[in-house]
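Hello,

Our lab assistant flagged a job as stuck in the queue for most of the afternoon. It eventually completed. Since we weren't sure the result was trustworthy after the delay, we are filing this so someone can double-check. Below is the sequence as submitted and the structure that was eventually returned. Let us know if re-running is recommended.
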Amino acid sequence: MKNLLLIFTAVTLSGFFNPAFAEIKIGFVQVDKILKEAPQTQASNKRLEKEFKSKTESLKKMIQGIQKDEKDFAKNSLTLSDSEKDKTSRKLQQDKIDAQRTERELREDIDLRRREEINTLQTKVNETIEKLAKENKYDLIVYQGVAYASPAIDITDLVIKSLGK
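-- returned structure --
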């Protein structure tokens, strides 16, 4: 009987010391918040703004020139011959098409560079999360496809703070 009690106690206690019953440390990260609030995001936006400022200004001047030419054409159209009207109208139409093409190309260039910047930041975020996980002994950090996460396990602000260092 005494041996049976010892065996029962040993089996019961071994369950408490089993690693499967150890507490699992889980963290949750809101990537969209990080991408908005990280210091690297503001720096990236400033770089993009600086990089495309001259092209944007050039496009604005082009559009303003076309608008001025349209006003002049509307004002002077009564005094122009039919051939002059057609010629000026075609030129204005071609200028509009060129401006639209330039705007579309600029937008595509900006989008491409923005995606490059986001990919660079996302790599940095992943490295930071991995570093924090190792330092703080997290077993699992989740950041995509989560329906609900308690604020108690949300480490987003910790990641943003770490990115700022």
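-- support follow-up --
The delay was a queue issue, not a problem with the job. The result is valid. Confidence is low (pLDDT under 50) at residues 1-17. DSSP finds five helices and two strands in the chain.
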